[in-house]
Amino acid sequence: MSKYHPLSEAEAIEIARSFAEVFPTGEELVSREIGDGNLNLVFHITQPATGRSLIVKQALPYVKIIGDSWPLSLDRARIEGEALIKQGELAPGLVPVVYRSDADMALTIMEDLSDHVIMRKGLIEGGVYPDFAEHLAEFLSRTLFFTSDLGMNQQDKKVQLGRFINPDLCKITEDFVLNFPYYDAESNNIEPYLRDAAEAVWRDEELLLEAAKLREKFLTHAQALLHGDLHTGSIFVTPASTKVIDPEFAYYGPMGFDIGAIVANLLLNYAGQEHWSPNEADRRDRRAYLLSTITELWTRFERKFRALWDAHGVDKRFDLPGYQDDYMKRLLQDTIGFAGAKALRRVYGLAQVADIATIPDREARERAQRLALAIARNLIVSNRSASSIEDVVRIAETAAGSRS
Ligand SMILES: Nc1ncnc2c1ncn2[C@@H]1O[C@H](COP(=O)(O)OP(=O)(O)O)[C@@H](O)[C@H]1O
Ligand SMILES: CSC[C@H]1O[C@H](OP(=O)(O)O)[C@H](O)[C@@H]1O
């Protein structure tokens, strides 16, 4: 019989107490449940007398924001633990240290990163993260290259793929990202003033066709081990440090889905500047910062990925002249398409983002939503003709009216 049950705070403390490497002395421990995500419990355990701490994350057997009508496999906690360990090996220092992963209790016990800030919050507050593009390019290039057929033994990859079969979490993405936004689904959360914009999406045949192709790619293209949900709420930052958390959606999928996720969330913050920037000059500067972060991220990612390929490529058939260039072009196009899809679902889908949803003034919020939608649409419809990251910059600036 399974021993799984959702932990009480007292139980979380008892589990934490057994980690002598974090809590070598016996002073009192205190727990606070700080989970602000859509799916899990997160206990922050501290020892006030010493200032030591750790995190106990536990998966719930259903989608927290929906309730038990949407059951969810607890195996995602095993997947999260294994993905964090794999990412920590491939990209040292860029994920939290995992102290223990307990599949039976669906627990991940890990380093407390409370000295960092969740990037979404940091960006909303106007934070600047000069090393972020370099760190994330390092994380993405190494985790994607070394789990793909380009950079690892191709038979081992098939075995690894089996360890990351993640049907329930993939279904969340297939539904909430790649299906529900494209018709009048019950779970959509459309503010009445935005209904015309949602209906325009549902009639837009060019958009629907490209979105269907992205959906097919997500369903079928087992290119590399993805983080699977790499938005700015899954990244802790300081100006000098970046830590990626929460890879419970990890599975073998198209690389552009991970890169596109972060591009999308930087663009959602770009749209949110309708409110968060106090004046026109600040808005221009802030948006320039966000777009330069996107450009830097892709440019550094591409340079690193090509260098890894040149040094560690395992498949001689791929050494043909022009093959690498063609691969990188397709990867950029996937990135742009998935960035559009990941942005679009956050405007009127079930799970929205604070960058836009918390804008108190209705008119500013509506401007941000319509801008995010315009950017998302143009990314999706133009993805297969894109040839440079400059295409993303052009689409964002044109939609914002800062470029003719
Ligand atoms: N390692 C950590 N250190 C400090 N806080 C954390 C850590 N992991 C998660 N949290 C906190 O818990 C919140 C939810 O965690 P997350 O892993 O994103 O859960 P979910 O999968 O439910 O979205 C984060 O936004 C953050 O505030
Ligand atoms: C109905 S789940 C919606 C959404 O929640 C996940 O995000 P997180 O747990 O990081 O808040 C993921 O993005 C899902 O698409």
From TrEMBL:
InterPro entries: Aminoglycoside_PTrfase (IPR002575), Kinase-like_dom_sf (IPR011009), Methylthioribose_kinase (IPR009212). Keywords: Amino-acid biosynthesis, ATP-binding, Kinase, Methionine biosynthesis, Nucleotide-binding, Transferase. Substrate binds at residues 229, 345. It catalyses: 5-(methylsulfanyl)-D-ribose + ATP = 5-(methylsulfanyl)-alpha-D-ribose 1-phosphate + ADP + H(+). GO terms for biological process: L-methionine salvage from methylthioadenosine. ATP binds at residues 40, 57, 111-113, 246-248. Residues 32-282 form the Aminoglycoside phosphotransferase domain. It is an enzyme of class 2 (transferase). Pathway: Amino-acid biosynthesis; L-methionine biosynthesis via salvage pathway; S-methyl-5-thio-alpha-D-ribose 1-phosphate from S-methyl-5'-thioadenosine (hydrolase route): step 2/2. GO terms for molecular function: ATP binding; S-methyl-5-thioribose kinase activity. It holds the Pfam family APH. SUPFAM superfamilies: Protein kinase-like (PK-like). Its EC number is 2.7.1.100. Homodimer. Belongs to the methylthioribose kinase family. NCBIfam families: MTRK. Catalyzes the phosphorylation of methylthioribose into methylthioribose-1-phosphate. This is Methylthioribose kinase. It comes from Cohnella rhizosphaerae. The gene is mtnK.
